[in-house]
Write a structure and sequence with these properties.
- α3 packs parallel to α17, α5 runs parallel beside α6 and α10 crosses α11.
- This protein starts with 8 loop residues before the first helix and ends with a helix.
- A five-stranded mixed β-sheet has the order 2-1-3-4-14, with helices on both faces. The protein has a five-stranded parallel β-sheet with strand order 6-5-7-9-8, sandwiched between helices.
- It is built from 18 helices and 16 strands.
- The protein is α/β, with parallel strands linked by helices and about 450 residues long.
- The protein folds into three domains: about 180 residues, 3-Layer(aba) Sandwich (Rossmann fold), CATH 3.40.50.10800; about 150 residues, 3-Layer(aba) Sandwich (Rossmann fold); about 80 residues, NadA-like (Rossmann fold, 3-Layer(aba) Sandwich), CATH 3.40.50.
- β8, α12 and β9 form a beta-alpha-beta unit.
């Protein structure tokens, strides 16, 4: 939705019952434009509408107004659950949620650190996450039996993951394994469902993050001849470049949105090209990171800024930048810089805003890579992450305290939720146990590889 078409708060009050357009929500920071257009905007669940209506009726969105309202719901939940409650949020969440989760003693981290939290904190039996569904599911896969994982908004999906559903990936993986046998393994990026991670575990592959993808690929390639890398083609290319693999050893599969993929002579570039490849790339990408260009990098460098980008960006963008890495890398590199340094950061807009605010206090300037004269946008917010907001946090915590949380907000391994209809498919107990075994194998291999590789 173009910035000029966002609803005003007063417009939302009169249309919420029919449109439920969440992009009009007001947070503690100004709204960011939504740059991807392939996801419908959020609407509130029936159980959470009362909290949203109260929030929208507040006279303003200043901390002095919002925090007392939120305290009225969060503090009773904190007192009720005590040390058994853990609040989590991803770096990409809007500034309001990041600050609120930290205010109430929660943790804000990248997907890797979030995934470990249940396993590493067995005393936390009620875990509430403000992020996207695959992140909450990763926590649930590694959780102990007496821990429950809840997501503030089950409709928070991921554009990249939406083009790597099990019904798309599994037939292709099966065909490739039939063709190559034990020579092929699947490496599943964290931005995949548990069902895809389970395929990776069964095939001898592993999960990976943006920080450790090159380490994981190196490890799996040392044991196998080929890897099917799912889902982000750009992270796959950038990780392969770190391993100095030549471009002709990478093969990009057809767009999964164009129909079923058949491994036969109809493939583009011929079967010979596929057979020659060591990394077979699934054809999906992040709607935010693919907007950044090498031209943007150069224009900021011309102004003396150090340019850092996320490895989900296209290869030419990463090649042009001064550095690339995970959200943790981006944050730590900037915060360790000397006062007076100036950066341009190519990643999700909410993250850059939060980073810029913290860096400013240290005398470090941070701008978003897309913040350039003549551009129609200046720092995209992730539509999926933005589906979590203060009313969602207040509502789920209050309903949990009352003992009436919506079951759709409970995240169990193997759950799939349609981002449009919010219909959920949940595995039966036996299939869920199989998935946990295989997906945990993929995640635990990733953890072991990361620990062995050390920093860098």
């Amino acid at each position: 939705m173009p910035p000029g078409n966002r609803l005003r708060p007063d417009a939302l009050r009169s249309t919420m019952s029919t449109t439920h357009n969440a992009r009009a929500r007001i947070t503690l920071i100004p709204d960011l434009p939504i740059c991807q257009t392939d996801l419908p905007l959020d609407w509130y669940q029936d159980e959470l509408k009362p909290y949203a209506e109260q929030y929208l009726a507040l006279p303003d969105r200043t901390p002095g107004t919002v925090l007392p309202w939120l305290d009225g719901y969060v503090q009773p939940a904190l007192q009720h659950f005590g040390p058994s409650l853990l609040l989590l949020a991803h770096f990409y969440m809007g500034g309001a949620i990041v600050k609120l989760v930290e205010r109430y003693g929660g943790l804000v981290a990248d997907s890797y650190q979030l995934a470990l939290q249940a396993n590493e904190n067995p005393e936390k039996t009620v875990i509430v996450q403000s992020a996207v569904h695959f992140m909450a599911e990763a926590v649930a896969i590694l959780a102990h039996h007496d821990q429950s994982v809840w997501i503030t908004n089950p409709k928070a999906g991921c554009t990249m993951e939406m083009l790597a559903k099990e019904h798309m990936v599994l037939p292709v993986a099966d065909q490739l394994i039939e063709r190559y046998g034990d020579d092929l393994a699947v490496v599943a990026y964290m931005n995949t469902s548990g069902r895809i991670k389970a395929i990776a575990g069964r095939s001898g592959g592993a999960a990976c993050t943006s920080a450790n993808a090159h380490h994981v690929l190196a490890n799996v390639l040392a044991r196998k001849r080929r890897v099917l890398f799912v889902p982000d083609q750009h992270l796959g290319r950038n990780a392969a470049a770190k391993l100095q693999l030549p471009p002709d050893e990478l093969y990009l599969l057809p767009d999964p949105g164009s129909g079923s993929i058949v491994i036969d002579d109809s493939l583009p570039g011929s079967l010979d090209a596929l057979d020659h490849a060591r990394i077979i790339l699934w054809n999906s990408s992040c709607s935010v990171h693919t907007l950044f260009t090498a031209e943007m990098v150069q224009r900021h460098r011309n102004h003396g800024r150090i340019v850092l980008v996320h490895p989900e960006c296209r290869r030419p963008t990463v090649e042009s930048a001064d550095g690339s890495g995970s959200t943790r890398y981006l944050w730590d590199t900037v915060m360790a810089a000397a006062p007076g340094e100036s950066f341009a950061i190519g990643t999700e807009g909410n993250f850059v805003r939060n980073l810029a605010e913290q860096a400013r206090a240290r005398g470090i300037a941070v701008r978003h890579l897309a913040a350039l004269p003549g551009l129609a946008f200046a720092g995209c917010g992730c539509a999926a992450m933005s589906r979590n907001d203060p009313p969602h946090l207040a509502g789920i915590l209050d309903l949990l305290r009352r003992g009436t949380p919506p079951d759709i907000n409970l995240v169990q391994p193997g759950d799939t939720v349609d981002e449009t209809t919010m219909l959920r498919d949940r595995l039966d107990p036996d299939d869920q146990a199989d998935l946990v075994r295989d997906a945990r194998t993929a995640l635990e291999r990733m953890i072991a590889i990361t620990n062995d590789a050390g920093p860098g």
